[in-house]
Amino acid sequence: MHQCNHYRRAHSRREFLAKTALGLGSFAFAGLLDPQSLKANIPFKPAPGALGGLPHFTPRVKRVIYLFQSGAPSQVDLFDHKPQLMKYQGQDLPASIRGTQRQTGMSAGQKIFPVVPSPYSFKASGRSGTLFSEMLPYTAQVADELTIIRSMYTEAINHDPAATFVQTGSQQPGRPSIGSWVSYGLGGENENLPAFIVLLSRNTSSGQPLYDRLWGNGFLPSQHQGVKFRAGKDPVLYLDNPAGMDGTDRRRQLDYLNELQKVQQQQVQDPEIEAKIAQYEMAFRMQTSVPEALDLKGEPDYIFDLYGPDSRKPGTFAANCLLARRLAERNVRFIQLYHQDWDHHGGLPQAMPDVCRATDQPSAALVRDLKQRGLLEDTLVIWGGEFGRTTYSQGKVTAETFGRDHHPGCYSIWMAGGGLKKGFSYGSTDDFCFNVAENGVHIHDFQATLMHLLGIDHEKLNYKYEGRRFRLTDVHGKVVHDILS
Amino acid sequence: MMDWFGRFHPLLVHLPVGILVLACLAGLVLPKEKINTYLGVFRIVYFSGLFFSILAVLSGLNLAGQGTYDEVNLSQHKWSGISIMALCLLLIWQSRLSGSKTLFRLINGLTLMILTLTGHLGGSMTHGPDYLSVQKDEPEGREKNPVNDSTLILEELVFPVLQARCLRCHQDSARNGGLDLRSVESFLSSNPGDPVIEAGDAVKSELFKRVALPAHHPNFMPPNGLGLSYSEIRLLEWWINLGAPSNKRIADLPESAETDAFLKNQFGLRSSSIDPLAGIRVDPASPAALETLDKLGFAVRPVSSGLHLLDVVPKKSNEALNAEQWNALLALKDQVAWLNLAGTHLNDQSLSYVGQMTNLRKLRLERNQIGDQGIKNLESLVHLEYLNLYGNGISDACINSLAALKKLKELYLGETAITDKGIQTLKEKNPGMEVIGDIELW
Q1: Cross-chain residue pair A374–B440, CB shorter than 8 Å
Q2: CA pseudo-torsion sign A356, A358, A359, A361
């Protein structure tokens, strides 16, 4: 118990002196500077689990659906058309282009880095004339709703650090995921559902592993961690009452449990006990809300047609996209999907059609469905992976096949939703699709922009842990105003 | 070659200054006996002072021909510099006489004073007339108030640039082309005959032409030092092309893509960072009313932390609202700007409550049982910009009520009985409105 004693003293002597003396002083000082500032803040009771003082400014979107394409889709085969590459087909990538770009151990030892132009044709789509690969025929049909960033770049070169970087702002594990930050800052609007929900595609053939910490809460209170819904019959395990028990029993049981928790809380003052109480209560409410929210029986046939045949199979990316729309309708703050099949080190031409078939139509359908329901106006949809893929082949190029290695130097993502320029492409890469040529967007810039759209100043939302204040973008990140409308 | 010699003036002046200050101080403070003992040393020092002040004066005269310095200032500096040479001669003469040192001390004191004066006048010419009062005249407002839409174009954007770059010379309505930049008023009233500013046409305006010429052109301004930066020149051009307005704010300008692009490039002022709701003033909501609304099952939060407007959503989806809840909502009808009542089993009758919340900007009513009669209640929502009626039982009969919402920018009518013809009519009546109907399949 001794080492827990600091929890018992709600205020230590030092804290007391600091808070009273500095507190009174700064209060007086604030009053001197601007007497209005003391009056302006109305005593808001923030929405469930949210902080006061947020949003920092009027938000453009109220929720996010993040379609994470794990494994890293090849930008040069999907979004970033490089016809000039035909000239260099099979030739060694010039050293001047390769520069000092890090390479993975998988291809760094190659004697030659043979340039492979995309085998796919590109077509201008929509009124904006945005170019999309023939692999993405459905996404091309919603081109005028999308904002494409062709100049994303990252620092990490392997899947887990790169995904961790995109999701938490740090390559080292342990920081909170974007969804946790948003849940911590803005809270949920639906008290019966978690503010941060995660849906994984099931049965993809060759995925890089996804660790639960990608949607972890890090050092934030644990009720802000992403709640992973399982694909299949029971999205959340043990949600049904055990045999012989009805809801009332469960309620009474929880009430007694809460009393016990509170006794413990009095003694040790551990904030995690509060988190535990909150999670037990949420689980109780989810017993009714989750089956209703995830029940697709009421959806008409044309909706399944919109999302494609896969949408009738639970656990597919298509079914998850449809669920994401239902959760968005229920005001869930942050909905994160993961689809794993994109790591095409070899056999890219063979693998690409399948993974595009699984993701292209549902992603585009989600945009169109949200648009029709008036939800796209205040929802941000993001589609993208953790890095790009090399313009040269990993291993030999044959008539039938080739592969592409990891490439942090540049890649493409798209976004859709409120506050963005529609049918707009931002940034560009060089003719080899290897380096950012103009308007590079770093991972932290992307995160800062995401937070900005939610009405959060990424520099102000922080959390003190181990003696210093942390934020999603650490000490970096600039909002990309050029893509905002 | 001689020009080149002139450039050494700023360097050479420091030699007589250093030498004479030291000698004059010694001449002032040392006792009479000491001075008399060291008269020979004093003489050598005064001689070198004289030698270097002659060099300084010659190089100074040379430099004076090269630039456009303020004439009054220049002539004072010139004559006080020359007088130092004369004082050196006097001091040399004095250092040959032993005995009483009263006159000797007097001349030393005078030399010190003239040295200080000359130095100050010189500084005024190279660093500007108010270089000693920098703190007072620095346009500190620029740093504190970033450019926003209430910034005055001439007074806060253009004029500070002119002052910073041109005031050193142009501070008199009689000289230097008569451009007097001491204040906005003097600038506007100094009318030098020539079209210094041809409102609306920068290319015909001397003010723009002179700074935009190639730097080696004889008419190029400023005559020495770096020219104006590209963005400063662009700012002048933009202002003159706007018609050279005075006492006008950025917000007063008519909207145009060029103006937007210019403001964005120059000042980072973007329409995307202007809060669309910032101009709406309402009283703060009463804490009791907020508390009640929260207890009755609504998630209530400010639209943004700086505003009193509210964003309200029921915490449970799919539940109908009761009278108590409606009353709690109506108690805050001035403050609620965004209201989301999707899927809350609303009918025509409940819309009579909604119709009273006249400050609404965004209203989500999708997936309810609203009919054409109910929509009539919404006509009072004159500020409404977003309305979602997806999945309600409405038909073309409510088109007129919807067309009456003049501020409406987005209207969602999917899954209703409204026909394509109805949507067409709406678009004709209200061309600024985006109407989204039934979903298109692939």
Answers
A1: no
A2: positive
